[in-house]
Amino acid sequence: MPAAPALPSRVHGLFLALLCSCTCLEGTGAKLQAFISSPLQISASFGQCFSVQCEGYTAFRSGNIYWLANGTFVEDLYPDGAVIEEDARKVKVPGRHLLQRELVFRSFSEQDLHTTFKCVILDPFGPAQKTLTWLPPKEDGPETGGSGSGGLEDP
């Protein structure tokens, strides 16, 4: 049986660098794990225009933040732009990076209510995600007429 070819020195060096970096990071996962700090609970009425900000932290400069709608990118599920993501913002804070991204609803609809929106932060330690939760609309007291219901309750 012929001997297996030796690894090129570049591959061997890369393997050693990865092995060393993993060993150095071992046991620090709790401090380095990305997390989402926004509560992501909101009350909305049909036809309302509003935005939801997702905010979280990562230890890595290379971390990214984005929204998913039913497990796909927002722009793919909403090619008409009814729901869009604003540009991500990254701010260096002591010991970590703050990531922010807004999800904008141009006119909240029944489709939006039944869509699962997740905020995701992805970094070298893996993903952190949180699902947006819809709360019942807040009651402002007895209806005084003229405003219409516009709430999330079924007709």
Automatic annotation (TrEMBL):
Residues 133-155 are annotated as: Disordered. The keyword Signal applies. The keyword Ribonucleoprotein does not apply. It holds the Pfam family YLDV-IL18BP-like. Residues 143-155 have a biased composition (Gly residues). InterPro entries: Ig-like_dom_sf (IPR036179), Ig-like_fold (IPR013783), IL18BP-like_dom (IPR055139). Residues 50-132 form the Interleukin-18-binding protein-like domain. Keywords: Signal. Residues 1-30 form the signal peptide. This is Interleukin-1 receptor type 2-like.
